[in-house]
Amino acid sequence: MPVFVSSVGIGRFGKRPEGLEELLVDAARKAMESIPSGSRHPEALFVGSMLAGTVGGVESLVPRLASRLELDGIPGFRIESASASGAAVFQAAVHAVASGAFDNALVLGGDKMTSLPSDSVTSALARSLSNAEVANGATMPSMAALVTSAYLARYHMPMERMGEVTVQNREHASRNPSAHFQKVVSLDEVNASRTVSSPLRLLHVSPMSDGAAAVIVSRSEGRVRARGLGQATDRIEVALRAELTSFSATRKAAQRAYEMAQLTRKEVQVAELHDAFAPFEVIDIEDVGFCGPGEGLPWLESGKGNMNGVLPVNPSGGLLGRGHPVGASGLVQIAELYRQLVGEAGPLQAGHPRVGLAQSVGGLGSHNFVTLLERS
User: Fold this and answer.
1) Which class for 352: exposed (0-12), middle (13-18), buried (19 or more C-beta within 10 A)?
2) What is the pLDDT of the chain when averaged over all its residues?
3) Is the four-CA dihedral 54, 182, 146, 242 of positive or negative sign?
4) Which of 5, 68, 349, 350 could form a disulfide with 345 if both were Cys (CB 3.0 to 4.6 A apart)?
5) What is the DSSP letter of 42?
6) Strand partners, 215
7) Nearest alpha-carbon partner for 336 in 317, 311, 354, 321
8) Do residues 173 and 181 make contact, with C-beta atoms less than 8 angstroms apart?
9) In 3-state terms, what secondary structure has residue 202?
10) How far out from the chain centre does Cα 183 lie?
11) Cα–Cα distance between 341 and 354 in angstroms, integer?
């Protein structure tokens, strides 16, 4: 049974004074205000968040939000899949609507990350890693640095070139009024920023942000259809994986999404990829099949992924530019693609795409998602 995206809402990302509940309500109201005339209000509520209690300071999100949105009485669900929570909650809602359980559903994703010191948030994020690796000092940046080092060594690539990912995404974000960062940076600035976990520098790393997004999915005909859903898991222990220079969970998720959609990578015309760390975008480009192993950075450097390229990547600014409130990131990718596909992305509009791909990474590549959307 086909399922459509009928409306979206995106709040401003960055350091926000509001609490998590308020951020989610704001995004939800934006989406509900844009519901096509004649459509019914949501029959179910799906909420994605990774850090609601540990960092955002709030639990029991479903009844709180239902009451604030005057949706008391409807069924609701909270979904958590680390930094892919937004992608996970979207796919869960689509499956529920496709099953016939509901005609439509309101999907929310968000987190507030700036209410605690950065060290505390880093510790909270590390809980999505292997307990054994955390006990030996692993953090999300240190494990990302390990993956980056392996990639650079395998493909004989200097780290200085990776800064091009940040430069491009920050340029895209400079056009995005909802982005955390709205100033461009140069390659020299990226390479001169302080070291976070060698070889990663500060401007290779996405910021800790507050923010939320909302999407309404429906069985009624809409302008954008959810064509392909794919997800897969991998060993949570990074040291026990078969390889470090690719995320097998993304490759499997992409294959499943393409097969479900009966589309190929050559039909994708715009993409939102998970760039929590600049080298991850390069790996993502390869894993979803846009190019071969080791070819992701040259592919980007050639201009193929910029706003005027053959396949614009992260025209919203991505996690590096738009910001990374972990529970929202996977869902705002869907919302941004919706705007691209219906031609309502404003200064972020990248041509006239028909098919868009969103890819989200949970933890350190342990639970990844790929979603394909198509203009109806």
Assistant:
1) exposed
2) 96
3) positive
4) 349
5) P
6) 8, 107
7) 317
8) yes
9) helix
10) 21
11) 6
The answer to whether 299 and 265 have CB atoms below 8 angstroms apart is: no
Q: Which CATH superfamily is domain 4-116+208-375 in?
A: Thiolase/Chalcone synthase (3.40.47.10)
| Paired sense of beta strands 4-10 and 200-201, if any | unpaired
pTM passes above 0.85: yes
Which of helix, strand or coil describes residue 304? Answer: coil
Rg (CA), the chain: 19
207 alpha-carbon distance from chain centroid:
13
* Helix%, strand%, coil% for the chain, nearest 5: 40, 20, 40
Contact yes or no for 330/84 (Cβ under 8 A): yes
- DSSP category for residue 313: B
Phi and psi of 26, rounded to 5°? -60, -45
- Extended strands (E) in the chain: 4-10, 45-48, 76-79, 104-112, 195-197, 200-201, 210-218, 224-233, 270-272, 355-362, 367-375
Residue at 1: amino acid letter: M
Residue type for position 276: A
Confidence of residue 34 (pLDDT cuts 50, 70, 90): confident
Pick the closest to residue 324 from 149, 141, 133 (CA basis).
141
Half-sphere exposure of 261 (CA within 13 A, CB side): 27
Task: Kindly list the distances between the CA atom of residue 368 and the CA atoms of 123, 265, 287, in Å, as whole numbers in the listed order.
Answer: 21, 17, 11
Residues 99 and 91 sit within 8 Å (Cβ to Cβ)? no
- Any idea what the Cα angle at residue 25 is, between residues 20 and 28, rounded to 5°? 125
Phi-psi region of 290 (alpha: psi -120 to 50; beta: other; left: phi over 0): alpha
Inter-residue contact 62 to 305 (CB < 8 Å):
no
Q: Is the pLDDT of residue 38 over 60?
A: no
